[in-house]
Design goal:
atp-gated p2x4 ion channel fold, Helix Hairpins, 2 domains, nucleotide-binding, 10-stranded mixed beta sheet, membrane
Amino acid sequence: MGQAGCKGLYQSLLDYKTEKYVIAKNKKVGLLYRLLQVTILTYLVVWVFLVKKCYQDTDSSLQSSIVTKVKGVTFTNTSELGERLWDVADYVIPPQGENVFFVITNLVVTPNQRQETCAESESIPDALCCEDSDCPPGEPVVAGNGVRTGRCLRAGSEQKGTCEIFAWCPVETKSRPAKPLLGEAEDFTVYIKNFIRFPKFNFSKTNVLDTTDRAFLKSCKYGPKDPYCPIFRLGSVVSWTGSNFQEIAVQGGVIGIQIEWDCDLDRAPSECYPHYYFNRLDNRFSENSLSSGYNFRFAKYYRDAAGVEFRTLFKAYGIRFDVMVNGKAGKFNIIPTVINVGSGVALMGVGSFFCDLVLIYFIKKSHFYRDKKYEEVRSGRQGNGKVNVEQLQNLQTVEA
């Protein structure tokens, strides 16, 4: 029994299977087959080639450079700074525009600070004290403004006070203004110049419209009527994120400007244009959240006639703009075209396979079609040494 099984396995390895075409006169299965063919063909033509453009070689290793320039002036009159005109050198940080720039919209100003001793701010929990032993000298105040001197300063008959510190005095005590100092920054504009290059195709492009009209950049504004102008009004950018400029200007925020390039290099280079998307990146839905807003401190230093160093401390609130660039380029290449055409031809065979399953297993006369599809033929010879053709036509299994 074991030898017979091994012999049968050995002989089956030498069998050759060839296709047999059976025409099934079944209208339902025939209609199903054509529908599957049309569906697969539509998928290949519309989705694979027209939408996804799989006949192209692509390059997503985009090389990019950003240059930004903000323009606009405004006037303020405050008790700390007096009358002052603000231009780009005052409210834009850093002064040389890059892919990230910050526009000041609100300020807390502490003028005429000098290094001496004074009382720490009452808003600092680590600075509260009841007696001098609560203020060990030489230790800095956690999240505070200076180093303890060893004295606890109390006002009048108060039991609690704050530690005396050596710091830039007077320390910052004012709260954030409820109305933005530079609310008119809403009408400022920013010029965003973007250079890109796709190294695989040695293709370079800029987002500035190729024109000889020198007045174009002086008069255009980005918008639905002029989508290829690289000059953006700050108030419009904020509104496109779903936020209100005057509200975000109070405590600051972070705005993302995304430039997306999707270039079909089979077309003219002039048809490769950028698309802009605007989003607010900080926590805009929680007004009192610690994660919302954006601010930082900086100072301007000077000396008086006696050589004593002073400074003016600024706590700046404003809008940080992050310009992000991504994209891809595609160009016809015979290799991906052949690969996808071959994959499509192979996919067409799925229709035949599925209809065979329906014929053989799911319809009422499945056994009849199964017998017609699968036929075993063994070599048989008559006296003249030729195969009897009539036997092959009339019998399902032809014995020797």
